[in-house]
Every structure is written in C-alpha cells, then in structure tokens.
Amino acid sequence: MTKQEDARRFKLGKLVLWVVLIFVAVIQLFPLIWLFNFSLVSSTEMFTSGILVIPEEIKWSNYSTAFEHGHVLRYLFNSVLINSLAVISVVLISIVSAFAIRRMRWKLSGLVKTLLLLGMMIPIHATLLPNYMIYSQLHIKDTIWALLIPYVAFSLPQGLFLMIGFLESVPKEMEEAAVMDGCGIYRVIFLIVTPMLKPSIATVSIMTFLNNWNEFMMARTYLSTPTWKTLPFSLLDFTGQYRSNYAIQFAVMALTAAPALLVYVILNKHITKGVAMGAVKG
Amino acid sequence: MDKLYRNKLVISTLILPGLLLFLFAILGPIILSVFYGFTDYSGMGSYNMIGFENFLNLLKDDKFGLALRNSLLLALGFLLIQHPIAIIVAVVLDKLRGRAEGIFRCIYFIPNVISVAVIAFLWKSVYNPDFGFLNKVLAFLGFSGQINWLSQENAIWSVLVVLIWHGFGWGMLIYYTGIKNIDPVLYEAASIDGADQKNTFLRITLPLMKPVIQVNVTMAIISALKQMETVYLLTGGGPGDSTQFTANYLYQQAFESFRYGYGNAIGVVFIVICLGVTVFLNKVFEERQEQ
Amino acid sequence: MKSITKTKIKTKSKMIALLLTAAMAFALLAGCGATETTTTTSDTPVSEPTEPDVQPEPAEADEPVAEDSGAEPVTLRLFTNLPDRQNGQGLIEQMIVDEYMAENPHVTIAVEALDDESYKTKFKAYAMDGMPDVVNIWGQPSFLDEVLDAGVLAELNEADYESYGFIPGSMEGFKKDGKLYGLPRNTDIMAFYYNEKMFIDNGWTVPATYAELLELAGTIHDAGFVPVAMDGGEGWPMAIYLTDLLLKLNGDVANISKEAINNADFSNPVFAEAVQLLIDADNAGLFQTGYDSQDYGTAMSLFTNGQAAMFYMGSWEASMALNQDIPEEIRTNIRAFFMPVVEGGQGLATDIAAWNGGGYGVSASSEVKEEAIKFLNYMYLPEKLSKYGWENGVGMSAQDQSEFMTGEETELQKIFINIINQATNTSGTPINDNGSSLLKTTIESNIQSVSNGSMTIEDFLATLVEACAP
C-alpha cells in the first residue's frame, strides 16, 4: 500500500463520514424547517407543489394570531413556574432521601430504597385513572398541586437513583469532620454535602425538566380551566379552532416549540453533558 | 457520632417527604386501581364487585393483545433500526474533532427538546397525502400518485418512524458518551497491533460499550411498552385499532367507553407487565455479565 | 312580536317535529322578508350585540331575568364543545355569554371549551366528582343514558319553556321517564356541501342517484380534485353516512336501528347492504386519500381551500358561507345537496338524515343551580340562540326561527330551509348514538376498518352484535 493510496482512502473515508453525518442531520432537522416554512404561508398555498413553498406574501400575521389566541405567554409562564417548582422539589427531596439512605444508619434503609426506586418502572399512564379520582376527592384537581405532585413523584425515583450514585463518590471525611465540630445533620447536608453535589444537581435538574416540560397527558386529565394549563395546551386547545385556516396551526406549533428550543441552543453543551451523565449512570 | 447517624427523628424527617410522596402519588393510586379493577364501575353512579371478570375478559380481548403486539413491534424497531444507526453515528461523530462535532451533536438532539404535542401534529401534517411533506418529496422526485402513510396497513410503521426519529438523539448521545469514556490507550494499543477500523470497532468499542448498550436496550423496551402520547395525538390508536397501545387503550376504555373498572384492570396488568419485563431484562443482563 | 309567537305555538302543536317550523319558515322566507327591517344579516362574524335596553321578556313572570345590582357575586362555569369562539356556533355562544355578563354585573361566566372528542372524555371525568354549572350535552342514548343514570344533570321544568318556541318532539331526546334534563340547541341535517363554481366550471352536475355520485367521483378525481372531503379519522361522520344510506335503502332508520340494537341482531340484510354501499364509495375513490386517519380540520381545509369539490358534514357548518377565513370565491359558492337515492331503495330524495342532537343542561350538583338555570333560560330566549344563530348563518336551532327571516339569508340557509320544508322523513338519532357508549366506540373505530377493506362486513356486524349484547 503506497502512501498516496493511503491518503486517497483516508480522504474517501472522510467524505463518506461527512455524508452520513449530514444526511442524518438533514433528516433530523428538515421537518422543523418545513414547519417554519408552512407557518408563514396562507392556507391555500399549502397545497401548491414543490417541497418548500415560497409564499406570495410572508404571513407574519399567522404568528400574531397564534400568539394571541394560543395564550402563549400565559401558558409559558405556567410551564416555567410549575417546572421550576418541580425541579427544586425533586432536587431537595432526592438529596435528603439519598443522604438518609446512604449515610444514615437504620434497618429499613435497603427496603425503602428498593421501594422508592420501584417508581422508575411504574408506567405513569396506569396511574391516570386512580389519581384522577383521588385528586377529585381532595378537591385539588385543576390546581397547581394536581400537576406538581405527580411531576415530582415520578421524577423523584430517577433523581434519587442518580443522587445515591453521586453521593457514593463524595468522600465522607469532610462531613465527619463537621459532625465532630458539633454540626447537626441538616447543616451537614445543606452546607457541606450539597455544594459537593453541584454537578449531579445540574444533571438531576436537567433530567427532571426534560421529563416534565413536554408532559400533557396528566395536565389534560387533571386540569380544566386555563388557570394552570401549560405550554403544550397552546397547541392542543388551538387545533379545534381555526379549522378553516390551517396554516395558523403551524405558527402555533412553532411558537410552542420555540422556548425550549431557544434555551437548548443556548445551553446545549451543558444540557447534553447533563443528560449524558444522567443516562450513563442511570 | 454514630448516635447522630442513628437518630430516628432525623432519619424520619429526611426520608418522609420522599416516602409520603411515593405512597400518595404512586403506591396509593395503584392500590386504588387494583380495587376498581374488581368492579364494574362505569365512572359515574354506583358499582358492584365482580371478582375477576374484568381480568378474564382482558385475556380474551383482542385489542389488548394487539396493543402488546404493537409494543413488541416498536421495541424491535428501536433495537434493529434506531440503535444500530445511533451506534454508527456515535462512532463516526467521535472521529470528528473540533466545532463540527459539537454542532452535529447539538442538531441530533434537537427533536428531543420539542414538545411531543408539536411532534405529533407536525408528523400528522408530514404524512398528510394532500399537502404533506413526504408526498411532496415524492412528487418532486417524479413519483405520481398519493401514498396513504397513515392507512390501516401503514400506520404502525409510520408511528414507528416518528418515534425512532424523535428518540434518535437521546440514544445516540448515550452511545456517544459511552464511546468517549473508553480509554484512548486501548485504541492506541490496537493501532500498534495493526488492527483496522472494523476490527477496532468489533473488538474494542462494542465490547466496552456493553453496559451502555444494556441500559439503552432496557430503556427502549420499556419506552415501547409505555408509549402513549404520540399515538394519542397522531392516530388516536386508529385507523381501526391498528396503532393501539396499552396506555391509550386503558384511557379510551375508562373515559370514552364508560368502563372505568375495566380500564383500571388494564392498568393493573400493565404495571405487572412493566415490572416483569424490567426484572427479566435485569436478570438476563446480570447472568450474561457473570459468564 | 310576542303575540305572533303565541299564535304560532298553537297551530304548531298539531304537526310533526322538524317539518313544521320549516314549512312556516319557508312561507315567511318567501313572503315576509321585506317587512322585517330591524335586523340585518351582518357580513362580519363579529356582529353587534342587540341593544341591551331591549330587555328580553321573561317566559314566566315569576323569574325575572336580570337581578338587581348589589347581588352576591356569582361565578358560573360553562363547559362547552365549541372551541372556535370566532366563528359559527361558538361565536354565538360567546356573544350571549358576554351580553349576559354585561346585563348581570354580579355574574362572571368562566368558559371551558374543548373539541368534541376531548369534550366527551372530560365530561365523563367530570361526572365522577362535580360538573361545571352549565354544560353542553347530547340528547342521544349513547351520551345521555349513563349520564342520567348517574344523576348528574338537574331536572328542568318543562312548563317553563312553553313560550320558547321549541319544535315539537325536539326535547324528547333530553327526557327520561317524562322528566326533562336538557334543552336542544340545534336541528342538525347532514349534507354534501359542494363548490358550485367548481361544478359549473367543470361541467359537473349534482348527482341524482348514489350510482351517479360514485361515477362523479371518478370524473372529479380525473380532473385532479378530491371528490368528497371526509372527516374519517373520527368515526362519527362515517357512521352518519351509514345512517344516511340506511335511510335511503329502507325508508326508515329510526325503528330498524333501535330494534337491532335492543335485540343485538343486525341480521336484517339492509345493514350489510348499507355497509356495502359505504365500501363502494371507498372503492370508487369518493373520499380523499387517507380519509380514515384525517381529522375534522384537515378534511374541512381541503374543501375550504378548493382542493375538494365536496365536504360531507352537518348543517352546523352552514356558517362557512360567512367565514372570513375562507377565500371569498370559495365561500360565496358553497351550496349543499343531500344523500342521493339508491336504486331499488325505499327512501325518497326528500328523506333526510336529521336529528336534534346538541344542547345544554345544568349540573345537579351545582352550588349556583338557580343562577345556572337563569342563564340557561336566557340563552334559549328566542331572540338569543335562535336569532343570532340564524343571522350568523349557523344552521338551524331547535326553536321556531321563522320570525327572524330577513330575506337576506345565505344560499346555504335557503337550501337547508327548503329541504327541511320538503322533508318526507327524517332519520332521527344516528345509529352510532342510538345505543350504549360501548356501541358508539365500537362502531366508530370499526367503521374505518370495514370501509377501507381491513375488515369484512360480517365481522363488522358481528362486533356490533357483541357490543349490544347485554
């Protein structure tokens, strides 16, 4: 094998590599480009031939209608609020539970750990029917609790699992020294252990956020008035309206997708790192 | 110090928030579900205890069988189509250095951050025979005639494509991380031994990724079982019941056919299946690791 | 105005349900158009509210409609299946809600609107604990039987509505054991909407027989259009199509379908024949590709954007003629015809698929039941739902609308008035809604399979038998 041949082979290999990567990227992205394209045309133009449509007049008005009638701002606010609260709760509860299970000494810790982790295997949808009944009886249906409770409960097992794993790699010496100095357990947890868990907190937060941000089945079942509806409802509630002006639906889809997409593009390094860390450990 | 770590009161305050939440939001509902599974409750008014009737009916219910078969099909689709591609792309991506690597990784993950609701409606339009993207591409390529992507025969495959597309970035990212974690010294050693790329992949990359592959396979099978949101919005389980999935079916039974009791019976069996499959997969992988 | 209404009521009671109003409506349409000057058909969907100083005359004197100011603030929850608040029926409902709140400052009405399918799911979910105060209901066994058994709807006093001009018989679906639990909102007629300009331009004619319809499908298809846009992703439009065919085959559908459902016996050959005609339509390419997976909006947009020549849907979509979102050259050319006769069938061209379906009821568990009923009665004042509906071209209410004729009705409205005037028989509740909710879900999911050829007729009918068996 001559050096030249080798170089040519290398180049060819590189080319194939690029083609594969770009091809997959196009497949992953094109539906979204098409979505954006359709959000700017009129309903009649949707039917013209050609893969993409060049609108006679760019219909930005689709977006203003979508924004207004889709209640995008309000639902976005609800989504951010509910998800932030869920993330904070999951992080806090998973830290203290992980500490109790890994560090504290009690007989039932193994059993409780297994029980809590069992939650990872339970299909969320199987609890839709009974939870609906329970929340009705307690009159917390259509309140923020009807979303917050199941969101936290179903993200907790995974968060706990990750926290236990991370906690194992945190050295005990520091906290033991603190305890010697007369520090209570709570202060040990929040002042000494928590700061050392920073990277894992980020991972748990990202996983929890991704799990719950797009959830709509529970929201659809437990909520009725717009008070606490989350972002996916901008789209879900919209589809019955504007039946005859279909293109606006594409604008609503784009608006519903935009916030998460934007945050992702800005923070993509941290997010992918967090997911990778969580998923490989989990 | 030991006393401090054995303080019952402190332990309770630490573990109770999580435990109570679990009991209230997960275990309690399951117990309630078991109870209603033994009733003929329609969802309103009064009800009777009917013993195992719901569960016996479930055994005879073709649609439930169809839902399980669809889950199996989906799991196979993930394992035979999505994952091989994801592994290959992850390996290729790993070879690429610099900015491009980051950009591609970013792009591949994008569908994952988009709401399932948007994904379902978007693909419903992509599949539309009259203005949909796919038929337009075909027309552009000179193919005349309309393909009905969501017909009774095609729908399950079309659903599969959406789910593979949507979950691709996630699977790829995990494989990618797995590859990144492989000690580069091993590759150097292999290249000194004169191993070509194919051999390096088969002898080093793949075996070392075993734990990652196991995690991914387990997740793929479980998510195939749990599938609901996408079909709920994309096809509603139709046409006919060709894209029926367990979760969608229990929802329909309880809230559309007035069979809340039966829906709960499905839910209970559903949970048992999910637990069983997870335990089974763990056992299988554990044994293989011991060998 | 009031006296006119009263005299009408007397004459009316003798005649058959749907047919009568129409007869009068027709007479008035022909004759009285010019005399009515106070109301005009508004071209824009946002029509002006009627003058607030014209206080609606209460039906019975004992229940004043408007409360004195200073009353306790009340919030009424209205749960409705009309998510589009800018057009059609949803607009009418919203107009009345706004007017009521303006006239009764102490009342706030919170509206929750979902499309049909989600509405029904949520309704059943609500039935477990507490209903919103005023709810949309359907006066059909598949929906109402279980709801009434569970006792979630409040009883209404039928005598209160004597002066409301309800079409005789239209309340029947909302009754149980002689007690009234809801009021009908619409008289629904199923039709083929078609684009007249497209028909004329291409030299197509409205088919007189079913065979001609299927033949026309081929012609339209060859011209590059979709013959009929069908909302087949949801099962009910096709189930109504089947009901329509049963009527054309048998000349009666109410009795045979009720009998078949009660006895769990669909062996009457007319059922298989009707299903076969539906399959023939699929084979002839009458519907768009992928009709069995497309939703309402997708099917409708095919028609309203000029891709489809026809659209099979109910009279509630007659407001398309006034919908500004639809291009003008299309909306002004929308006409309608009805299921053509089948050769050898007993049904006449004037036997139509029509029924009184949608309506409103009040929750039995409502904490503000009195206020809720007051609002309900307000909506049904003839000059509210009926009049606004008529002016906005929404279709027909279940009340006497003849006095609201202006002579400026849209062509579509005239077509519907005509057919109801000439109707020789009506289908009553469509077959899917005439039994249990299990029968409904069974028909609606399996009718897709049978029409696209994935299921045999025998198997289809067998699943219906199974769903009806006790």
Summary?
The complex is a heterotrimer of chains A (282), B (291) and C (470). Chain B is an all-alpha fold.
Which homologous superfamily in CATH is the superfamily of the largest domain in chain C? Periplasmic binding protein-like II
**Which CATH class of the largest domain in chain C applies here?**
Alpha Beta
How big is the Rg of chain A? 25 Å
Instruction: Compute the number of helices of chain A.
Output: 12
Number of strands of chain C: 15
Task: Give the low-pLDDT segments of chain C.
Answer: 1-68
Strand content of chain A is: under 5%
Low-confidence runs of chain A (pLDDT<50, min 5 residues)? none
Q: Which sheet architecture does the biggest sheet of chain C show? A: 6 strands, mixed
The CATH topology assignment of the largest domain in chain A is MetI-like fold
Assign the CATH superfamily of the largest domain in chain A: MetI-like
Strand percentage of chain C lies at 5-15%
SS-based structural class of chain A?
A: mainly alpha
Largest sheet of chain A: none
| CATH topology call of the largest domain in chain C | D-Maltodextrin-Binding Protein, domain 2
Give the count of structural domains of chain A.
2
Keywords summarizing the entry:
heterotrimer; A: 282 residues; mainly alpha; MetI-like fold; 2 domains; C: 470 residues; alpha/beta; D-Maltodextrin-Binding Protein, domain 2; 6-stranded mixed sheet; 5-stranded mixed sheet; 17 helices; globular; disordered N terminus
Q: If you had to describe this structure to a student in words, what would you say it looks like?
A:
The complex is a heterotrimer of chains A (282), B (291) and C (470). Chain A is mainly alpha-helical and 282 residues long. Chain A contains twelve helices and no strands. Chain A folds into two domains: 36 residues; 194 residues, MetI-like fold. Chain A is flat, with a radius of gyration of 25 Å. Chain B has 291 residues and is an all-alpha fold. Helices cover 76% and strands 0% of the residues of chain B. Chain B has 14 helices and no strands. Chain B starts with a helix and ends with a helix. The mean pLDDT of chain B is 89. Chain C has two domains: 200 residues, 3-Layer(aba) Sandwich (D-Maltodextrin-Binding Protein, domain 2), CATH 3.40.190.10; 209 residues, D-Maltodextrin-Binding Protein, domain 2 (3-Layer(aba) Sandwich), CATH 3.40.190. Chain C contains 17 helices and 15 strands. In chain C, strands 7, 8, 9, 10, 12 and 14 form a six-stranded mixed β-sheet that branches. In chain C, strands 2-1-3-13-6 form a five-stranded mixed β-sheet, with helices on both faces. Chain C has a two-stranded antiparallel ribbon with strand order 4-5. Chains in contact: A-B, A-C, B-C. At the A-B interface, helix 1, helix 3, helix 4, helix 5 and helix 6 of A face helix 1, helix 2, helix 4, helix 5 and helix 6 of B.
